[in-house]
Amino acid sequence: xxxxxxxxxxxxxxxxxxxxxxxxxxxxxxxxxxxxxxxxxxxxxxxxxxxxxxxxxxxxxxxxxxxxxxxxxxxxxxxxxxxxxxxxxxxxxxxxxxxxxxxxxxxxxxxxxxxxxxxxxxxxxxxxxxxxxxxxxxxxxxxxxxxxxxxxxxxxxxxxxxxxxxxxxxxxxxxxxxxxxxxxxxxxxxxxxxxxxxxxxxxxxxxxxxxxxxxxxxxxxxxxxxxxxxxxxxxxxxxxxxxxxxxxxxxxxxxxxxxxxxxxxxxxxxxxxxxxxxxxxxxxxxxxxxxxxxxxxxxxxxxxxxxxxxxxxxxxxxxxxxxxxxxxxxxxxxxxxxxxxxxxxxxxxxxxxxxxxxxxxxxxxxxxxxxxxxxxxxxxxxxxxxxxxxxxxxxxxxxxxxxxxxxxxxxxxxxxxxxxxxxxxxxxxxxxxxxxxxxxxxxxxxxxxxxxxxxxxxxxxxxxxxxxxxxxxxxxxxxxxxxxxxxxxxxxxxxxxxxxxxxxxxxxxxxxxxxxxxxxxxxxxxxxxxxxxxxxxxxxxxxxxxxxxxxxxxxxxxxxxxxxxxxxxxxxxxxxxxxxxxxxxxxxxxxxxxxxxxxxxxxxxxx
Length: 607
Ligand code: AGP
Description:
Layout lengths: L2 E6 L4 H12 L6 E7 L3 E7 L2 H10 L6 E7 L14 E2 L5 E6 L5 H10 L11 H12 L4 H10 L5 E7 L6 E6 L4 E4 L4 E4 L11 E4 L5 E4 L4 E3 L11 E3 L15 H7 L1 H9 L3 E2 L4 E2 L2 H4 L2 H5 L3 E6 L1 H18 L3 E5 H4 L10 E7 L5 H12 L3 E6 L5 H5 L2 E4 L12 H20 L6 H20 L2 H10 L4 E6 L4 H15 L2 E6 L16 E5 L6 H13 L3 E6 L2 H4 L5 E4 L8 H19 L18
Helix pairs in contact: 3-4, 4-5, 7-14, 7-15, 10-14, 10-17, 14-15, 15-20, 16-20, 17-20
Bound molecules: 2-deoxy-2-amino glucitol-6-phosphate (AGP).
């Protein structure tokens, strides 16, 4: 996904802009560029990785204390230098960087070309620069020119504009694509993701949709207001810059898998009263009365967040006794969902910026449902647009594949299920569940300490290009999630299936060259899953078991990964860890970069 960085202050902008882009590299991109203001606008762009831009920046002088920068993930126009941002107007007096999609750009571009504007790219973004130029030609001031331009645009944008004629000033505008302003001492930063500016400040202002900010060294003025924004709009980033580095690990994905014991501790911290058997969720305290009247919950999310929601369905129904449905956000937002003010719609999202999930929440609000967020990124759009919610506290997740965020989502969903049960006077499982949750960090560490089991499974899988993940009940979503992990980082065609479905078709795939990874902890479904393993074996299938009892299945399978036993409701949190490690090791064994899988971006803020 595209990344934006801006700076205005008294220091040289270029090093700050380049550092910000390097932090945003993980989001996935195919070209990059910077523009620095110093009486004129110096724009430097390059196709490919940041190292190509760095070579050019070294060759060209780019002195100035105000500038913008961008990493581009192509949506319109091939990844070439001429399509890289920043984009400029005909005279080079205006430069801008843009995240999002301008849906009516063709008609706007045709009008501009008919009046003589010359375009140098195939992008939708460049249209904005020429529209601003056209308005400033008619003596419109920069801010008004930007406002009037955006009034004629349909689509989404996170936009930062700089003009050679308006020194030490950046204009930032947001509609559907995140922008955050970093507050420094007589300097300000702008970014599409707080991780790009955390090295300089933890004090941030999140722009809301429809807001346009004039950002100078001295302050931030919103929507033309004469008075600068005050501290009331400021929030503080709650993690540190070293959390956006690899901590000595070869990849962010491995670092984030290995830090999951701490992540679970952080997700639980301050939320469990083990003595009185109670769960405390401050983010829901203010809506307890409303929650008590809810007669149905709809969980919405995408990808791993959706699979976490499927586990949440079992947890909330079994622990709190409330009916739950789980919907893919990309489907929910286009259906005519039958929801009411007695429905709670819970959005699960690590980034809090996924376009489909954000729009699903907006649809739920239009239908007067109670909207809740289970979000990892403080101050993100979904966190701010839902009526209430619970933060994961998993820290920034840099690897494109969701690992610690997923485990944190399952942990927090368990707390939410217990909390909802409490509101309804349901307590019988609470003490056991809270005690089980408290044990999880140690049990996860035990799995991580025995990573060698994973390498045995990787050897068994060898160069396979296909495999099935199978699980039942709480472990069906883990089969789907395990398949997604393997797909997205090692490009093996993996499918997740409920074990009970095998006899309805998929078993036709099974022969000695087709491996299956079966989630079979000793739980209420073990006997059924055992039968599935025997069916696979009878057809010569290669089988890897993830189980809590090696003795029970070891003789029947080709490789076995043993994990600790916990309560059935909590077992998915442990069984998903080997699937994460398996995906990681398979990617490394195939000389792939698990942090930057092809075609993927960390946060999908476009539809
Ligand atoms: C999971 O490994 C993927 N990166 C992807 O499916 C992700 O879970 C999905 O895009 C949702 O992202 P979100 O949690 O930030 O909304």
